[in-house]
């Protein structure tokens, strides 16, 4: 079996590249005036054989995944807005395999008396600050009854940092001719270096600005507008998990962690694509459905 061997020269170059970035508050925090969120018109991933698979998702006229929904909401409609990243968007999946799509089906089949609409506002790569902007400038106008905030452990990394990291990774993997089968091992070196970078930036600062403050604002807006809030977390670090639990521990805000729903290791799309497959999304939809029934009937 092929294994990776990164000598000291390459490892030093990786670390040196990371050290070049100038982290400061002006680039870490979200710039509302200049930011526009990208939506993916095509999804590509490698299957277990190493073949490239491409899927064209349905993108509606308001620039989020799925069919069109009217801004106006009739009295017999209950609306759920799901705000997240690639896990919500459903990277590597067809429209009908994503958990927001499955959730809409479940709600309409099982809870009579209303027409349920579940809007998939997942944008791959965005963090909690950007998810907050999605709520403010897109989600609220649809007058949701329930908002599901999907958090990810990577939310602690600023978007500019992730873009820069991807560029460095691509450059070095090309320079050292890292083969496709070894790229996952090469990524581990980046992941290890990430942990060092967290402390260089100021880890407590990141936790406060990129995790706790956006969650507090989601809570405040929920109280002001009157929708129910549910938080679904993918792979939170211990520190992030503590923050989320601190703000949901009174039980008024349901908090679901993906590892308590299923074992992600058994539900990956392929050995090359770590995002969860359609079966996992179906399980997630059923779990969220159970929580929503408690919200409705309690």
Describe the structure.
With 298 residues, the protein is of the alpha/beta class. It has one domain: SGNH hydrolase (Rossmann fold, 3-Layer(aba) Sandwich), CATH 3.40.50.1110. The chain is 46% helix and 14% strand. The protein is built from eleven helices and seven strands. The protein has helices spanning 8-20, 25-28, 86-89, 99-110, 128-139, 159-175, 183-201, 203-225, 238-246, 258-261, 278-297, and strands at residues 43-46, 52-55, 77-84, 115-122, 146-152, 228-234, 255-257. The strands form two sheets. A five-stranded parallel sheet has the order 4-3-5-6-7, sandwiched between helices. Strands 1-2 form a two-stranded antiparallel ribbon. Strand 1 and strand 2 form a beta hairpin. The longest helix is centred in the last third of the chain and has 23 residues, at 203-225.
